[in-house]
Amino acid sequence: MGLEQLFTSAFLITWLAASVRLAGPVLLAALGEIFDELGGILNIGIEGTILFGALTSFLISFLIGNAWLGILGAIIVGIISNLFLAWMYITVRANQVVVGIIFNLLALGLTSYTFRAVLGTQARPQKATMIETLDIPILSDLPFFGPVFFSHSIFLYITIALVFVSGFVLYRTKFGLKLRAVGEHPRAADTAGINVMKMRYIGVMISGAAASLAGAYLVLGQLGIFRDNIVSGRGFIALAIVIFGRWNPYKAALAALVFGAADALQLSLQIFAFKIPPQVLLSLPYFLTILAMSGLMGKAVQPAALLKPYNKN
Amino acid sequence: MVPYIELRNINKRFSDVNANDHVDLSVNMGEIHALLGENGAGKSTLMNILYGLDYKDEGEIFVQGQFSDIRTPSDAIALGIGMIHQDFMLIPPFTVTENVVVGLDEEGSSPLLDLDKAARSIKALSEQHGLDVDPHARVEHLSVGEEQRVEILKLLFRNAKLLILDEPTAVLTPQEAEGLFEVLRSLADNDHTIIFITHKLHEVMNISDRVTVMRDGKAIDTLKTESTNPRELAMKMVGREVVFHIDKNLRKSGECVLQIENLHVDDDTGYHKVQGVSLDVHSGEILGLAGVDGNGQSELAQALMNLRPIKEGNIIVNDVDVTNISSSLHRSAGMAYVPADRRKVGSVSELSVALNTILGNINHYTTAGNLIIQDLQVREHAEELVERFDVRPRNLTLDAGKLSGGNLQKVVLGREIMHEPSLLIVEQPSRGLDVGATEYVRRQLLTERDRGTAIFLISAELEEILALSDRIAIIYEGEIMGVINSDEAVVEAIGLMMGGTRLEDLPGYR
Amino acid sequence: MMSKASFLERRQTPKESSSVTIFITALAIILALLFGSLLFLPFGVDPFKAYSTMVELSFGTLRGIGYTLIKATPLIFVGLGTIFAWRSGFFYLGFEGTILIGAAAAVWIALLTDPEGAIGPLPRLLFLLLVFLVSFVAGGIWAGIVGVMRGKFGGNEVILSLMMNFVALFLVNYLVSGPLRAPGDLPQTPRIPQATILDFIIPGTRAHSGILLALFAAIVVWFVLRKTTIGYKQIVAGLSPSAAWYGGINVGNRVILAAFIGGGLGALAGMVEVLGVHFRLLDGLGEGTGFVGIVAALLGKLHSIGVVIASILYAGMEVGADVMQRRAGVPSSVIFVIQSLIVLFILASDILRYYRINLSKLFGNDRGKKTLEVDSST
């Protein structure tokens, strides 16, 4: 196979479809993180929350056989775990980066422990009941657009819908204006009568639901199994997508697509007998994130109060 | 007549300080009531309590005769009380409309925003009260005077009947301040009540109907403005006779120590902030640079120490061109700098007092080729400093951030003075300091001047410039409007120059 | 919160004293251990017995002490790297990556000194010096990349360093599956020559001389930060970039140095792991150490001595956890839970400094003017 095949329709379709598919979980996590950061909180613990969601959805689905209950369980666990994070960030006012990093370690320990405790030490990875892919009638039969956009897991459709919901909430509702005010100038928001702490708590819990749902997405929508390193830094990539997408849900969706494309390249190019070591392609999304965050691409104007805890006194 | 607002027996403690000591205050409807006092007198605390930003330990608040338990700004807003702070509570990337409506959430109203409708109401309101502003403009693009108008609009939009203003003229030129006073008078004539926090006596005399003087957390007295005078007010404010004039004993100045030639400097956003400034400062003189904060003074001071890149121009100190030397070499060239922000720039709050005394000059206290710090030398130096400049407490290991403003300023100023510079650049030296500390700092500057040091004083407090300077330069939008001798200084003329009129264009200039 | 009948009264400023700090740290450790013990229960393990066995095994026997020191060594290096970087204001999180890079560099040099390698056998001292330098510099450059991005371009080092961890992972994975792979199927390099292995220092244990290097490094880091101008500048740059700038300190350069030194120290963790424990480069080397080391540094309040103590404590716990997994089947990942909970509780307990226990209200004695005030420092 050679270069010409690279440009044939089949390769492109597979690649784009895979890009959209792989962008899903990171985009979902990123949408949640937008609500964190616009409120002024940098939540590095998102990686841990995704892990919690992944494990919860796996266990429930595996043990009970019902994937939808698994999703529900994941969302509940995500909100609870982020309630703790929110408390540390907002009430205790501890250093957000420090808390996030330690939380991720905690999540790794708890999920690894629980997985082994429940399943014992099994040789082969166990598969959980998944959510099937949904082919949207008629639309999925379209040439090119069909496989790329309309034959995906229901998780993806939910995620896309959430992009629009997020945009609406953030820019067309009073809640959204209040949240953004809190992230820019909490003191001003306070004097205007806004409860800064409450807004930030809500933001963090929204991201908890989104992140753990992203974990459920990974397990029940894509991989079907659980392992310790299932998240593999996707939470951190979501952080990059938020910045890359300038804290805007629509731009974040585009950014996520770019990362998904990088991720997908590894799958698609493996068909060809290129002499690129697989590790190079596997690390493409990370390289892309590095490029995006390096500062070489100019500085993004972030929410002014990001990372600064708010003290009423 | 029942007072519109009555505060009874308000008591508020912050750890061991009694910020409000059983304070009584009553304000009548339609009056402009001044709350006069020094820094730390308790005026802001009292108003923060009235506005719900803080909560009293004891006491009662009555609005229109009704007991009111105000716990949050929302409570205050619901009662028709609005407050404008010294630092504007505006969100820079938001538009005027967004700033005005944010947080507004009436019972039963839709959760959706309607910015267009709000913008129209704001435009109408602004025209009604002479507060001209574009509802669609982003706040970050507005001038300071326009920002203040937005703040007032915010209050009026929420049907505030009582407006509390905290030091509103701190960032305005004398002319802009007059404009504000006109708006306030008009509002008062239209059934609004105004409480006006200030430490400026002439403002009290100018605009208020009644004035309450506060000192050390207590309400000392409430007077009808027309029956009092600045001297009486000053005495009540400070508790003793105030010297309005420090004896400067005018000296003849000596050689030129600092020569700034056609300096051009950009600020952090790349804006051409200093545009062709030329000045000179001589030994044994204080050159005061007057101007409203933000007209390029900070950038100018930073450029002098090469803490900010110089686009064009030259700086010559003692006949040596120091334009491009590194900032550490400036100090060896005889320059010293006391920045405006003593807590974030002039010192390291989490570091000990001792280690702060070597900031900017580490190599003086090292050995082994400037690699290892000589603890003993550092301690001796620090001990000398706290003795000489009476820093309290005398604890060298204390974190510098725990010192009071005045004592911290003594450390910063002392550190720079102890290097015996030939040129001392001081920015806003008495900002945020109480009377005692202010007096001390000013005396130190005069002492240094008498010893032959050239002092370049940058201050937004016109009164400070007038009290200390031998010559006065005025900066506006990065350009020098004029330089005059202090004995020729007339406040109105300086005010005009601060607002952009050049010296040669002043009426009456010959 | 003023007039509530609570025995917890809010202070205006937090009470800070070392007695409070020690009390809080001890309380946090106990609470974390309690939580951890909940995780033992499903395995029918008596928590009290488990903990005492852990202490006995990790610190009570010679062999145990040996294992504890082995595990503590890389944690100390990562902790020291954290101290130097973070106190300079550079929030580097890429120690996982530097461990791998340092390990790869060390293995590469070691293999080169194989009798059939390009360099051939070297005198011991020369070899140690060489491998130390190459490892340190490799890690320094690895982290330095992030340092330059932050120092010169204002990039976000938090996300950058996390990403670099994954790149390092893939790099090592590539090396052990390809160019450096030993004959056979396993993703690992050949064993390093006997002459390159670190000396055992405690007879009867496998404790190697890496611990001595770590302790020495701890002293050096302390000295540099406390007594040298470099240290002063780093600390000022970390505490207040604006004051640093005022004081003529170039914060960007400070950040780059912080990255280099931090990365170098992190790499030494990897070096001692391969030269003293694993004797080859393999997938998954030092997994988790890069983060546990950061947590240990936080527990040690970012001071050299604290880091050493915290690392030994955490290492002892890990040794104990390994044993518990073997004997009772409790997954060893339970230790991550305890290690992280300790520091999280300490962070959370910071708000306790804002409270004062009012005993008289606790016992309902509101009458009379006498209030027994007990500070949370007892």
Name some characteristics of this structure.
heterotrimer, A: ABC transporter involved in vitamin B12 uptake, BtuC, two-stranded antiparallel sheet, 14 helices, C: 378 residues, mainly alpha, three-stranded antiparallel sheet, globular, disordered C terminus, ABC transporter permease (chain A)
Q: What structural class do helix, strand and pairing data of chain A support? A: mainly alpha
Count every helix of chain A, treating DSSP H or I runs of 4 or more residues as helices: 14
Rg of chain A, alpha carbons: 20 Å
Order of helices and strands of chain A: HHHHHEHEHHHHHHHH
Q: Give the count of structural domains of chain A.
A: 1
Q: What portion of residues of chain A is helical?
A: 55-70%
Topology-level CATH name of chain A: ABC transporter involved in vitamin B12 uptake, BtuC
Describe this structure in words.
The complex is a heterotrimer of chains A (313), B (510) and C (378). The model of chain A has no long low-confidence stretch (mean pLDDT 86). Chain A has 313 residues and is mostly helical. Chain A starts with a helix and ends in a 20-residue tail after the last helix. Chain A is built from 14 helices and two strands. Chain B is α/β, with parallel strands linked by helices. Chain B has helices at residues 43-50, 73-78, 96-101, 115-128, 144-157, 174-189, 201-207, 230-238, 297-304, 327-332, 353-356, 375-388, 405-417, 435-450, 462-468, 491-498; strands at 5-14, 17-27, 32-36, 58-63, 66-67, 81-84, 162-166, 193-198, 210-215, 218-224, 256-266, 272-282, 286-290, 310-317, 320-321, 335-338, 366-367, 372-373, 423-427, 454-459, 471-476, 479-485. Chain C is built from 14 helices and three strands. The longest helix of chain C has 30 residues, at 124-153. In chain C, helix 7 (210-227) packs across helix 8 (229-239). The interface between A and C is large, with 47 and 50 residues.
